[in-house]
Amino acid sequence: MAGKKNLLKRMAEALERMAPGPRPFRPDAAQGFVWDEESASLVPVARISRMPLRLLRGIGPQRETLLENTRHFAAGLPANNALLWGARGMGKSSLIKAVHGELVEEYPGLRLAEIHREDIHTLPAMLALLREAAEFRFIVFCDDLSFDDGDSSYKSLKAALEGGVEGRPENVIFYATSNRRHLLPRKMIENERSSAINPSDAVQEKVSLSDRFGLWLGFHNCSQDDYLEMIMAYAEHFGLETGKDELRAQAIEWAAARGARSGRVAWQFIQDLAGRLGVRLEPS
Q1: Cα separation, 7 vs 82, whole angstroms
Q2: Which of 14, 18, 39, 43 has the fewest Cβ atoms within 10 Å of its own Cβ atom?
Q3: Higher pLDDT among residues 132 and 195, named by residue
Q4: Are residues 236 and 149 in the same domain?
């Protein structure tokens, strides 16, 4: 019996050694990181996938507002958490990554750290790790953030952003993108209203999550002029040589076939055009 117990103990110890533990965090290893919930580690990103800020068209006011807010944060000045909400494919996540790319040369200690929506309940652990790297400043970024019925992880987000005992670390700012202005589905809010003892208080708790973001930037479906401006800017930047009238006609036909105009649709058209012309797309 004793031999069997020793064998099981050695097997358990071997499995423990094989299990991935937290990786030591080195904020100087890269400009960007992705949070790995399983190992409670920030994994360096060799190259952040992003466009130059100057190529993001049709979102001028949002671009300037987020750039200014981020510059304040990078310089150690007060700045707000930001929620970028609205139409799909209009450059919300692209803008966050592009703003970081625009400022990182001027502020070498500025880092971008992404956390996936499904891991948001572990945000306090991530913030605790970032708090220790006080000589760096981190834009914590969550793409497509939203919560479904029965999901209570939004409470962890509220506490981590503002309401906890420690509060948000001074070297961290939180940027999120979402298709929902209040991050929660209307049905979820209305269910709380109908079942709560005090409906008004219940709804306020749900809606107050978005109040943690001092900066709300709305993104709306673009006009045809904005859409074509995106196309022309991409074509010029990547050297896609084709007649202006032909380019315009092809771009309009592409959008019509998809029933939508957006930054994403414009980029998909450019990829198709570049493929037909035999041109590689390498953002600089």
Answers
A1: 54
A2: 18
A3: 132
A4: no
